[in-house]
Amino acid sequence: MPHRLLKFGFNKEHPEPRMFHAPAQLKDEYDVVIIGGGGHGLGAAYYLARDYGITNVAVIEKGYIGGGGTGRNTAIVRSNYLTNEGARFYQASIELFQDLSREFDLNLFYSERGHFTLAHSPASLRTQRWRAEVNKHLGIDSEVIGPSEVKRLVPEIDLQCGGHLSPIHGALYHPPGAVARHDAVAWGYARGADRAGVEIHQQTEVTDIEIRDHAVIGVHTDKGFIKTGKVLSAVAGWTTAITPMVGLRTPLTVHPLQAVVSEPLKPWLDKIVVSASLHLYVSQSARGELVAGASLDPYELISMRSTLDFTEGVSSHLVDLFPMLGDIKIMRQWAGLCDMTPDFSPIMGTTPIDGFYIDAGWGTWGFKATPISAKTMAATLAEDKDHELIEPFNLSRFSRWQLVGEKGAASVGH
Amino acid sequence: MKIIHCPINGPRPLQEFHFGGQVREMPVGSQVSDAEWADYVFNRSGEPGIQREWWYHTASGTWFIAERDCQSDEFIRTYLYGGRESDA
Ligand SMILES: Cc1cc2nc3c(=O)[nH]c(=O)nc-3n(C[C@H](O)[C@H](O)[C@H](O)COP(=O)(O)OP(=O)(O)OC[C@H]3O[C@@H](n4cnc5c(N)ncnc54)[C@H](O)[C@@H]3O)c2cc1C
Fold first, then answer.
1. How many independent structural domains does chain A possess?
2. Taking CB atoms and an 8 Å limit, are B39 and A250 in contact across chains?
3. Which of A69, A120, A195, B20 is 20 to 30 Å from A255 at the Cα level?
4. How many domains does chain B have?
5. A252 and B38 in contact by Cβ < 8 A?
6. Which one of A252, A299, A309 has the shortest CB-CB distance to B46?
7. What CA–CA distance (Å, rounded) separates A90 from A80?
8. Can you give the pLDDT at residue B85?
């Protein structure tokens, strides 16, 4: 390292810039306590302050901010969902994302790539047509394209998939599909919330929630008790450890989702390519690495371990689609926790317990929803009433048998 | 490679098995309210800890029950429904 740079580094005049303060200790009481310092929790704190002037808020994070799903996802943002309720919601999120770098004055590397969902059978092409029609009806840019158009836009692709699977019949093409720098989303919201007076307490774990007469009166943490009348649980893959604290039953089960990153390559893939039949999705990061993922691990597990099975599967499918990748190396692999719902839609909003709000059921699809869920949950907390966009996602939909079936658009995790 | 003890076939690799979900008692449909029925259909325990699960050994077509810690992924016992037991 050049001597000058070293000197600069040690010079007290240029302290390392911090994104937010580390508050000394917890106060006795807050207006709102948010459990979970992922994008959703930090974002909700940000919008509570920005839109409602509610700033006596603590975000409680047991590890470090963005250390959960927020920093582990493959960062795909899209709105080509299957239901009216879903597509509308995710489209509102994309619209917020497009303006977020400017709002934060922080580069989120939000990069629109175009998103392909490949169809390997007439049946899957039918689902893509259905999605395209729902999308167009809502003004979302989505269309079905044929195999020659797929080949024109992604020339490296092998339409025959090495003969290991039925050939590519076409694809749902969604031009606004994007990737973003996921941890910067957490930092941007954290900095904004911190500047408005919100406290972010890392290394602090919520261990219990105190309820009296069906209403929240406080939370216990490993650093003491805090009085509060409003708690937002925004812990995604950890939700099934929180809901028993308030006696709430949910359909959530937790599965790991894994991902891999290859060695960096020269830029060659500017699109996001997804194949449900191959259990594969892949994009190339700004650093040149291929980021690839697959479907959920096949059984329930609340653990972030990685497996060789997964790497073998994802690698062989990558080569089926892009034979030229036979020689490249996998650099890293990891896993995150996914809180799965039976209809592949989130669970959001008010609950039967006064002052307990839930933002969960983010499964494999919650990164793209970060801005809109943060904004609508802030509104729901401030007004104690489900925001109009999230009404269909209330936990009570299961007892009303009004599911929002998104499996056709969300079964390959991204 | 992860090994699971099938009560019929003994230790076999995980790849030969299929997860069948949590073991739950089905209420008699005609004797419960709509809300109780919805609770049975949709809700799960999902909590960290030991749970009773259905597993299927695909190669031999055997359904059996496993008690497994769903955080450490440790199989504690496996046994046939109402029948023979094997130590995991
Ligand atoms: C491999 C992988 C790929 C994915 N790809 C995509 C994708 O391409 N696109 C997409 O939209 N989504 C994707 N997802 C899903 C997405 O990552 C999640 O849905 C999203 O990040 C959830 O964000 P969150 O803020 O709700 O929760 P998280 O970011 O998980 O934050 C929850 C936080 O709560 C904290 N916490 C938990 N319990 C407690 C407690 N008791 N006290 C205090 N703090 C606690 C945790 O430490 C954690 O930091 C993917 C997920 C994985 C694992």
1. 2
2. no
3. A120
4. 1
5. no
6. A252
7. 8
8. 56
User: In angstroms, rounded to a whole number, what is the distance separating the alpha carbons of residues A359 and A250?
Assistant: 12
Domain harbouring B64, CATH code: 3.30.2270.10
Q: In a 3-state reduction of DSSP, which class is residue A65? A: coil
Q: Are residues A217 and A163 in the same domain?
A: no
pLDDT at B43: 97
Give B-chain residues touching A360 at CB under 8 angstroms: none
CB atoms A299 and B38 under 8 Å: no
The response to whether residue A349 sits with its C-beta less than 6 Å from ligand 1 reads: no
Q: Chain A: nearest CA to B38, how far in angstroms?
A: 5
Extract the residue ranges of chain A whose pLDDT is less than 70: 1
- Are A35 and A168 in the same domain? no
A311, A189: one domain: no
**CB A249 to CB B39 under 8 A?**
yes
Atom of ligand 1 nearest to the CA of A259: 1
Structure-token pair, residue A345: 């839609």
Mean pLDDT for all residues in chain B: 93
For residue A282, is it within any domain? yes
Triad A162, A316, A298: Cα angle to 5°: 125
pLDDT at B88: 47
Residue A74 Cβ < 6 Å to ligand 1? yes
For residues A237 and A271, membership in a common domain is answered with no
* Amino acid at position B15, single letter: Q
Say yes or no: B71 contacts chain A, CB-CB below 8 A. yes
Residues of A in contact with B51 (CB under 8 A): 300
Name the residue among A250, A298, A299 with its Cβ closest to that of B43: A250
CA distance A293 to A205: 30
- The average pLDDT across B34-49 equals 94
Q: Whole-angstrom Cα distance, residue A134 to residue A138? A: 7
User: Smallest CA–CA separation between A236 and chain B, in Å?
Assistant: 13
Q: Nearest CA of chain B to the CA of A342: how many Å?
A: 7
Query: Are A40 and A136 in a shared domain?
Result: no
Pair A259, A336 in one domain: yes
Q: Where a domain ends, among A340, A366, A391?
A: A340
Please answer whether residues A157 and A273 qualify as being in contact, where contact means their C-beta atoms are separated by less than 8 angstroms. Answer: yes
Q: Which of A286, A312, A340 is the last residue of a domain?
A: A340
CB atoms within 10 A of CB A342: 17
Structural domain harbouring B66: 3-26+34-87
Beta bridge partners of B85: B79
Predicted interface score ipTM higher than 0.90: yes
Q: Which tokens belong to B13?
A: 């690799």
